[in-house]
Amino acid sequence: QFLMANKLDTAMWISRLFTVYCSALFVLPLLGLHEAASFYQRALLANALTSALRLHQRLPHFQLSRAFLAQALLEDSCHYLLYSLIFVNSYPVTMSIFPVLLFSLLHAATYTKKVLDARGSNSLPFLRNLLEKLNANQQNILKFIACNEIFLMPATVFMLFSGQGSLLQPFIYYRFLTLRYSSRRNPYCRTLFTELRIVVEHLIMKPSCPVFVRRLCLSSISFISRLAPTAA
């Protein structure tokens, strides 16, 4: 009754569980490397479906207008719909699957707890303990996801020069990264950029750091700071 009363949430729950399943079989290629590549695509397509459903839930009345598009781009679900479309036809990159896997796992765990509560407060205690441990590490997981989002930017550039990526991919991914940086709901991308800058500045200001390395790092920090959008 609970699942039928919340059909859209249940559909997203199932698609997230399928995303976790496909992502796990890509990261751990138990069925062979050839099959792993197909699971990579399936995971991203399932994530795209979840993101589209979530976006429809957040903005139910579609309008073909500039204002609607601007509003949609503020939603995290729209960001990861774009993310899935960026990588679904690209060369499989393990780093790119972790944000999809972990976000799906976190959201699926939250809804699984609701399903267990609907069954009874004492149902499946072992599974409840696992979900509580996952929830306790949520902040660390979100920071890890943000770190993946950031370091995928140079990875897309490397893929371009190695012949495994397209010319447009780094530019589209840069747009995705600016959306994540400006996210209203998830500040972890901004936080990680700040923390990385503090760490790098601390290291290059040490006397043992070569001058040319210090200048290169300061120039890089200045360049990245100019590219950063204004946070929402």
UniProtKB/TrEMBL annotation:
Its main location: membrane. GO terms for cellular component: endoplasmic reticulum; membrane. It holds the Pfam family TMEM33_Pom33. It is found in: Membrane. The chain crosses the membrane at residues 12-33, 80-106, 150-174. Keywords: Membrane, Transmembrane, Transmembrane helix. It is a multi-pass membrane protein. One of its GO terms (biological process) is membrane organization. The keyword Magnesium does not apply. InterPro entries: PER33/POM33_regulator (IPR051645), TMEM33/Pom33 (IPR005344). Belongs to the PER33/POM33 family. This is TMM33 protein. It comes from Asarcornis scutulata.
